[in-house]
Amino acid sequence: MADTQINIEQIRSDFEILNQKVNGHQLVYFDNAASTQKPKVVSAAIADFYNNEYSNIHRGVHHFSELGTEKFEAVRGQVKHFLNAKYLEEIIFTSGTTASINLVADCFARDVLQKGDQVVISHLEHHSNIVPWQMACEKSGAELKVIGMTSSGELDYSDFEKLLNDKVKIIAINHVSNALGTINDIEKIISQAKALNIPVLIDGAQAVAHLKVDIQALGADFYCFSAHKLFGPTGVGVLYGKKEWLERLNPYMGGGDMINEVRFEKTTYNDLPHKFEAGTPNIAGVIGFGKALEYVSQISIENIKQAEAHLLDYATKKLSEIGDLEIKGVSDKKAAVISFVVNGLHPYDIGTLLNQYGIAVRTGHHCTQPIMEYFNISGTVRASFSFYNTTQEIDFFVEKLQKVIQMLK
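The chain above was modelled as a monomer; its predicted structure follows.
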C-alpha cells in the first residue's frame, strides 16, 4: 500500500510535532511503540476542558460538573464500542496498562489465588505483565509458570499446552510483543484456556493502535491498554473485564466514588464500573482520549493496519541489506516494529548518533530483559512505525544508519 492512499499529507498535518526539526534535520519519529504522537484535536479538547469547562465530576449538581460527567461517561461508551464489549460497566478507567494489570493481579492475589495454584505468563512479556504476577504469587503462595519462546521470537505453543492443568487460575499474556512486534495467537490461547475454564488476561498495549480488537469474539476475560499508545494522552488506561469477574472481585483501592455507604463498622461498595475507580480520575485525559478514538475511527484501524504493514515490509527489506545487522523477532505475524543489533556495536551508541540526524528510535532492553537474556544481548535498537510515517523517512533512516555504522566501526 502506498503512503498516499491514506492521504499522508493531511494526516501528517494533524500532528504538529512532525513538522519540527531536531539538530537541524526534519524529525523522523520511529519510537511509536513507546508512545504515539497526538493529533491536534486531542490537545485542543484537553485545553478547552481546562480553560472553559473544568470541574470535578460524578458528585456535583452544578452545570460544569454535570457537563464534565456527561463528556467523561460518553468516552466510556466510545471505548465499549471500540472494543465491542457487551456491557458499558465492563469498561474501567485506570492510569494505564500497568495500573490495569496490577489491579487484576492484586485482586486475584486476595480473592482467587491460593497456595499451590499456578499463574501462567510468557517469555515475551513486558515487565508490567511479569512483576505484578510475581507479586501476586508472593502474596498468595501461587507459582509462576512461563511459556517459552523460539529463536524467531514467537511463543512456543507446544510448551503452552504442556503448562495447562487444573492448577492454573489465570493466564496473562500480551497480544503483541513491544520488543519484537510478534503478534501472538491469542485466539488459540484463549480457546484452549476456555476448554479448562481458565480466565485469560490480555495485555493489549501494543495491539490496539494496529489491530482491530473485538473482545466478544476473542472471549478474553480481561483486556488492558493505554491511551498514550493510541494517539491519546498519558495517564489514561483501560481495563476491560467481563462483568461476572468484576462483580466477583473486591475493589483494588478504597476512597471516593467507589463507595455506596461508609460506616465505621462497615463500608459497602459502589456498582460497576465505579467500584474500581477510586478518587478523582484523569478527567481531561479521558475527554482527550475520546477525541483520539474519534480520530482513529475516521481513518479506520484497517487502513492504519495496511499502511503500517507496507512500512514494515519496506523497512525490513532495506535493513536486511545492511551487513552485520541482525533483526531480532522474525515472525511471519508482526506489528510494525523492527528490533535489531549490529555486530560489535552498542545500541545506545547507534541511537545517540541517529538522534544527531533528528531520528528518534528506542534503545535498550525495552522493559523485556528476559527476551534480551534469551538472545544473549544487552538490548536492541528498535524502530517502530505508525501510519503517519513514510517510506521517505525510512530511506533517510537507513542512509543515516549506514553512516553511523561506518563511524562506529
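Residues 145 and 163 are 8 Å apart (CA to CA).
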